[in-house]
Amino acid sequence: MKKGYADIVLGLQYGDEGKARVVDYLAKDYDVIARFNGGSNAGHTIENDKGSIAVRQIPSGIFYPNKTLYIGTGCAVNIEKLAGEMTQLKKLDLDVSSRLKISSLASIIQPHHLLLDEMLGKSIGTTKNGIGPSYADRATRMVGDRMVNIRLADLVDQPNEFFANITKNLDATIKDYTLKNLDVKKIVQDLKKAFAQIKPFIELDPLYLEKKVAKGATVLFE
After folding, report:
1. What span, in angstroms and rounded, lies between the C-alpha atoms of 13 and 19?
2. pLDDT tens for residues 134-157?
3. I need a labelling partner for 181 at 20 to 30 A (CA). Which of 16, 19, 44, 84 fits?
């Protein structure tokens, strides 16, 4: 059996390093461009002869129509922003729906993560996208009887149960920090609508990439 391989592009943990430009330059030589960590950050800016655009969660291989774009297990997925990003790319004639895959084991950024980042992330200058709180909950997993780490697979398998869990996590944060004027029902309903948009792109096989590499595919991890 012909086996493929994977290469990794790593930055130095600073913003504006040019990682997306490097990935865009290298992407032509790979079958799969994969995000392996991070969330909806300030944007990875691609600049080439086809134009300039910043991608936030979708891998930086958007200008190559024959490349699979994979959002991996280690990512923290903001469902609403991902749905919005796909819609925006489509308006720019960059429809990625036929080649986007999202690992079902990726954790999601829940509404309470955004609230926590807004309140607690100011001192360290976060982008307020809830990425840090999401990773913290991924490590914690449970707080009392509440599951605080929720994966895309959970929403696929038992949507009613886990959207109720998301509501509980949001209610608990609102109570703990005495927050007011938040429409919890609307927040969760908007999340459900966005989930319906991205659900078709969720890859349920946790060995999807491994199987592709075993068959000879090459992967560039971003």
Report:
1. 11
2. 999 999 999 999 999 999 999 999
3. 84
